């Protein structure tokens, strides 16, 4: 039986009285990858931040395995949910191993060093993300794809049930984008990890996500499977482009082809 992991109920949020999110609701099961899509300013990152209580919604609730997140401590949230931010700026020359070890902080008592169990968990996380060979290298010595894998390893070291990713493939080369999404997909399947991912890349979302939440003006325009949500009408309305979503047997997944802009000839 697949368990309910996350329930977002009627979330609303405003910056300086300007509404950003309006009655947003959806559910996520264990092992699912859910993509949050929408144009700039549609509230994608704000929604993600409301989910991990970095922001407090003015209305609505977020439930993690039926427990309201507002009633949980920061430590309890971190033990259930890990975040991979859009821009992770690390200026100090930490090694990859040191960065991944930071993922154990929520589970460790203050002023105590990591245990043998912590080391084993970190080792497993680094193996799962393919960064074991990078352990002694500092973050500024790594490529963009390698850095992103280390940050995902840090999140995995928290041993979360839910992982929130904000534009995980942003600024990466195409091959690194594919590597990161293949990794995320594998983790969701193998670890039964629930993944909520903000993305601008419609094609990657179509290929790797089980469900899509399409935001428009802070509201959910559509939610459901890829073919249910990424229809020609929905994509044209929200992104102002003509597109075609098709199932591709070669990759055993959906793909989205951009045909042109609404205002262009694109035919």
What would you say this structure looks like, in words?
This protein is of the alpha/beta class and 267 residues long. It has a single domain (4-261), classed as Rossmann fold (3-Layer(aba) Sandwich). It is 32% helix and 30% strand. The chain contains 9 helices and 12 strands. The protein has helices at residues 44-51, 74-80, 96-101, 116-128, 144-157, 174-191, 202-208, 226-229, 232-239, and strands at 4-15, 18-29, 33-37, 59-64, 67-68, 81-84, 162-166, 194-198, 211-216, 219-224, 241-248, 253-261. The strands form 3 sheets. Strands 6-7-8-3-9-10 form a 6-stranded mixed beta sheet, sandwiched between helices. A hairpin with a 2-residue loop joins strand 4 and strand 5 (67-68). Helix 4 packs across helix 5 (144-157) and helix 5 packs parallel to helix 6 (174-191). The termini are far apart.
- What would the CATH topology be? Rossmann fold
Q: Name the average pLDDT.
A: 91
Task: State the CATH architecture.
Answer: 3-Layer(aba) Sandwich
- The total count of strands amounts to 12
Q: Kindly, what is the distance between the CA atoms of the first and last residues, rounded to a whole number of angstroms?
A: 46 Å
Give, in order, the helices and strands. Answer: EEEHEEHEHHHEHEHEEHHEE
- Give the strand order of the largest sheet, numbering strands 1, 2, ... along the chain: 6-7-8-3-9-10
Shape verdict: globular
């Amino acid at each position: 039986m697949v368990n309910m992991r996350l329930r977002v109920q009627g979330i609303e949020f405003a910056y300086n009285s300007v509404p950003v999110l309006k009655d947003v609701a959806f559910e996520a099961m264990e092992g699912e990858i859910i993509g949050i899509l929408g144009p700039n300013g549609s509230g994608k990152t704000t929604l993600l931040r409301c989910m991990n209580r970095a922001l407090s919604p003015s209305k609505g609730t977020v439930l993690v395995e039926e427990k309201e997140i507002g009633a949980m401590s920061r430590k309890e949230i971190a033990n259930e949910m890990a975040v991979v931010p859009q821009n992770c700026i690390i200026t100090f020359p930490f090694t990859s191993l040191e960065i991944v070890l930071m993922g154990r902080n929520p589970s460790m008592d203050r002023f105590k060093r990591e245990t043998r169990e912590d080391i084993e968990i970190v080792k497993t996380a680094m193996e799962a993300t393919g960064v074991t060979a990078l352990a002694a290298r500092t973050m500024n010595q790594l490529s963009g794809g390698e850095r992103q894998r280390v940050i995902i390893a840090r999140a995995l070291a928290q041993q979360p049930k839910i992982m929130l990713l904000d534009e995980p493939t942003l600024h990466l080369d195409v091959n690194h984008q594919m590597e990161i999404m293949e990794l995320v997909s594998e983790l969701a399947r193998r670890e039964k990890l629930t993944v909520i991912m903000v993305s601008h890349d419609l094609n990657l979302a179509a290929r790797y996500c089980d469900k899509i939440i399409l935001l428009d003006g802070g509201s959910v325009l559509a939610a459901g499977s890829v073919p249910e949500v990424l229809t020609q009408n929905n994509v044209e309305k929200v992104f102002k482009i003509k597109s075609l979503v098709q199932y591709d047997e070669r990759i055993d997944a959906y793909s989205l082809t951009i045909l042109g802009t609404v205002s262009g000839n694109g035919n």
